Amino acid sequence: MTFSPSPFQKHTFRGREIYVKRDDALHVDFSGNKARKFHWFLNQEFVHVKRVVSYGSNQSNAMYSLSVMARYRGWEFVYFCNHIPDFLKQNPVGNYKYALENGMKIIESLQRREDAYMYTDSSDLIIEEGGRQKEAEFGVKVLADELKKDIQKEGIKNPYIYLPSGTGTTALFLQKNLPYRVFTCSTVGDDEYLKEQFEEISEDSFPVILSSQKKYHYGKLYPELYELWQELQEDMGITFDLMYDPVGWQKFLLHVEDLEGTPIYIHQGGVLGNESMKQRYERKYETDKNNR
Ligand SMILES: *Cc1c(COP(=O)(O)O)cnc(C)c1O
Fold first, then answer.
1. DSSP 8-state secondary structure symbol assigned to residue 205
2. Residue 30 CB-half CA count within 13 A
3. Cβ distance 86 to 108 under 8 Å?
4. Is residue 67 a contact partner of residue 36, using CB atoms and an 8 Å limit?
5. pLDDT tens string 170-192
6. Which of 41, 63, 112, 123 has the fewest Cβ atoms surrounding its Cβ within 10 A?
7. What does the pLDDT read at residue 202?
8. Out of 3.40.1010.10, 3.20.20.70, 3.40.50.1820, 3.40.50.1100, which CATH number does the structure's domain 8-28+135-289 have?
9. Ligand 1 within 6 A of 207 CB?
10. Would you say the C-alpha torsion 103, 108, 109, 112 has a positive or negative sign?
11. Ligand 1 pocket: which of 165, 174, 266 to mutate (most atoms within 8 A of CB)
12. pLDDT reported for residue 288
């Protein structure tokens, strides 16, 4: 399957002009970033494959997108994760809910990666956590080619790219395939961890990591980030994801004064996961209010 180019839009935020590449609108069924990273797997013939096996967190965007891929291709999908809270089992939401609806078989295991590998046989397709593998470059290069055309069409002088990283795979392959500077930030581990991830995949030029004094722990709730997310939604009319984007914007806004050129923000999708994050924020605000 092929994807039509995702929309490219000009916006203003806090008085600053910024372009947004809407990979969230790439495809109705796929989470933007993961659709790019799995593009290669969507198009391979795979004569013998009947089952796809992966592992990761219980609300992962990759998990959801793999469940879609498996459904499209008529494969079984088996997914290993460390722990599923009882609350989630009884009240499925977000990526977890929709992946189950697509027929995912989920297995709790403490050593999810090891157990996933033990489980597979030679005819299975195994996908690393978050789609962190070299095959991801194929789809990310398609994104890079779209960006080159978008930039040319809009006549943008001195553009630079910005996107928040998890594993850093997308930022790294974008930098490799684009003649512009790519800036990113860490959202999962710290900056050191992100640099190590870059070094493991390739030795070419790396994206520049924008850091912050304050540490944001992945998946934790920060009222100031929720407020920023709401401000972005109200000002630009765009719903960003709640895991990566608020940290991404927060760090971007810390540095934007010092960055030369016109920013292009990559919206990498993932809004399906917002359901569970929003519930958690709302519960937190409710408890905080009751405790005041
Ligand atoms: C997976 C994902 C990321 C992180 O991508 P990496 O290639 O792992 O850095 C960022 N945003 C969204 C919405 C994602 O789904």
1. P
2. 24
3. no
4. no
5. 999 999 999 999 999 999 999 99
6. 123
7. 73
8. 3.40.50.1100
9. no
10. positive
11. 165
12. 85
Summarised one tens digit per residue, pLDDT across range 69-117 is 999 999 999 999 999 999 999 999 999 999 999 999 999 999 999 999 9
Q: How far apart, in whole angstroms, are the C-alpha atoms of residue 13 and residue 17?
A: 7
Quick one: fold of 39-126?
Rossmann fold (3.40.50)
Q: Alpha-carbon distance 101 to 87, whole Å?
A: 18
Residue written as token pair 């919206």: 267
Is 33 near ligand 1, meaning CB less than 6 Å away? yes
Radius of gyration in angstroms for the set of CA atoms belonging to the chain, rounded to a whole number? 19
In this structure, the residue with its CA closest to atom 4 of ligand 1 is 166
224 C-alpha vs ligand 1 centroid, how far in Å? 21
pLDDT at 30 over 90: no
Our answer on whether the CB atom of 167 is closer than 6 Å to any ligand 1 atom is yes
| Strand order, beta sheet including 182-186 | 8-13, 16-22, 262-267, 159-165, 182-186, 208-209
Q: What is the pLDDT of residues 33-54, one digit of tens each?
A: 999 999 999 989 898 999 999 9
Task: Check pocket membership of 61 for ligand 1, CB cut-off 6 A.
Answer: yes
- How confident is the model at residue 205, as a pLDDT? 86
Q: Check residue 104 and give its pLDDT.
A: 98
